[in-house]
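ok posting inputs for the 2-acetamido-2-deoxy-beta-D-glucopyranose job
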Amino acid sequence: MDRKKCCVQLSVHPSRGLMDEKFIVLVQKVLPGCQLTVHALHQCEDGNSWEAFGHYTTDASGTVNVSQDTSLGGTYSGVEAMGLLWSLRPVPGSKPGLRLRKKNVQTPMEVTISVYQGHQTEGFVDQVPLASVLVERWYMAPGVRRIPITEEGLTATLFLPAGPGPFPGVLDLWGGGGQLVEYRAALLASHGFASLALDYLTCKITLETGKMVDNQYFETAYRVLQQHPQVLGSRIAMLALSLGTSITLRMAVNSQVIKLRCAVCIGGSHVQPSDGSVKEILTYFNRNGSKTRFSEKNEVIWRDLLLPITTDPSFKVDMGRLQCPLMLVVGEDDQNWAAYDSAMDIKEMMERAGNSHLLTILSYPKTGHLIEPPYTPHFRASIFRKADTHEKIMVLWGGQTVEHSHAQEDAWKKMLVFLRENLYGGTNPGATLLSHL
Ligand SMILES: *[C@@H]1O[C@H](CO)[C@@H](O)[C@H](O)[C@H]1NC(C)=O
Ligand SMILES: *[C@@H]1O[C@H](CO)[C@@H](O)[C@H](O)[C@H]1NC(C)=O
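and the output
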């Protein structure tokens, strides 16, 4: 081994951090003007491997600082501090349609950052890197508690922030794929919100009885969260994506039980039978099944199912009656749901009713349906298993990787500020809470 090789120094700070935290990758003690590839490798829980890499040239001091230097090529280019994470993609030869989602949030996502000589694009496994560092990325901050909830027939997990509490609460809903998806709730708890991840499609009751849950199920979840001794019962929000947004909007407006401080709704719609159950909502969506389109790669496009947005008020949540602040997060290239058109219609309804001061819309060009916490890789399409029929299909979500990734970063920051303002702000909830801001 030559001298240049053995002296290369690679550091990542922090090497253990939260999923939404930036890191600084620094390569030092290389000769000036050297070509290097900085590479990230992650093996996920189901055994699939993911990689990302950027091509760099060392500066006059023999250094590459990924946070401020330009990648000249690779899976991302330009100055992209976190490109090594958001541009992760399955290694060549992987099955098509994979999506990266952490199931066990009690262990970190482990990423090996390595530096290779030259500008490489393939065959990393066959090469010896100049240096490597193992990085841990966590959804659960130290001290966050994970509590499975089965009472009152719920399939849910509560995440409590570190510290004495009580904390404001967030009820967290995902979309049509079902499952108990915990990672976003875990990350919200890491930011000071007691967060309840709720499975409402593949939950225990449904698996046991074959029946879908009714609207009461969500009210029960709300009450369990509200009455928890560590939760401030008058400071509860809902946060949702996709089908979860349909449910959140309807509960926020119609429920006699659920009283929200605010709601954050990503990639969804208010179009639905105004007094239907989850099952009736799904049936209604499928009524225009013939409007399903397919991309040139044969990926399913569902965005037209609700278009044009109906003018019949009995098939829309009456947004004019909403009484809490609402943040809508929209990907303008959402190919799965008519999120943009719905947001515009919601805005119009609220303007007409005089409550549009409650509405904030974050709308992002070239951004798809799956707006996730920052640095989550972008999936333009992936295999989706319908919770009701168990059918496996390749679904087009939309978005362009760079724009989508930047949107995720921007949206998450703004969502956290919005939640903080509405859940921690206003009447003084007690001095102890300030320490969690
Ligand atoms: C690397 O770049 C970041 C962002 O510009 C900067 O904050 C940090 O100080 C740099 N580190 C070094 C050692 O130059
Ligand atoms: C189905 O499409 C028609 C127009 O073709 C539209 O008026 C109607 O609202 C759509 N149905 C649903 C469920 O959105």
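notes: The first helix runs from residue 3 to 6. The chain has a mean pLDDT of 94.
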